[in-house]
Request: fold
Amino acid sequence: MKYLITGASGMLGHDLQVALADRDVTALGRMELDVTDLAAVREGAAGKDVIINAAAYTKVDDAESNEDAAHAVNAVGPRNLAIAAAENGARLVQVSTDYVFNGRATAPYAEDEPLDPISAYGRTKADGERFALAEHPDGTFIVRGAWLYGAHGPNFARTMLTLAASHDTVSVVDDQRGQPTWTADLARQIVLLVDSDAPAGVYHGTNSGEATWFDFARAVFSVAGLDPDRVTPTDSSNFVRPAPRPSLSMLGHEAWNTVGLRPMRDWHEALADAARQGVFGDQGVLGEA
Reply:
């Protein structure tokens, strides 16, 4: 089996390379492969059996004023990769996001919940899902992540530790709820999926359990050996941003159970493991959770 990872220089892309370290993998970052260029995509995908698209325009607020640029990467890119995958008889894993939903639900979103994005970023990612499924319906796996953190990119957990070094207290919103997800766990779950006989379709790649950003920040402080009471709660009205944030980003995991695969572990366990493995680098010597 031959694999292509796009967006390989990003946080998830790095962890996918680790998860596939024993395979025949071509890992291409943005500078090596422009997913918006169909000819380049066809060349890069030639001879591949599995394509995992981790390339994305992830600047959520910036996308509000640059939606065309975000659409090119997040929607046209997946379409191009789906075309190339279909031509090669390859499977495509399109990494998506909770932002394809409006965030106003009162329970975790099911995999087949109608898409209803409320931001430019969400709209472009939703279009990417639709385009990929339209071009390669029998070979496209949509894997939605949320609240990602890892060793190889900026993320909420790192931001909390940076603020901890310069602030006595940190105010964090307590009215947005989701599932903190370690990219190493997500990468391993994607490999599990493509190694299985699971059918193409939509799967939710988030760690189990739930938290608010406030809960998550307190947990980060704890695994860093810091006093979690230094984190204080606030609400979203104090952090108005160009792009609206979903109030509820929790994703249901029934599809894994349906195909006989185990959903991802609880986020507390994943965070403790990430800390022990030094995921947060020199931003804090992390101890046991």
Notes: Residues 283-289 have pLDDT under 50 and may be disordered.
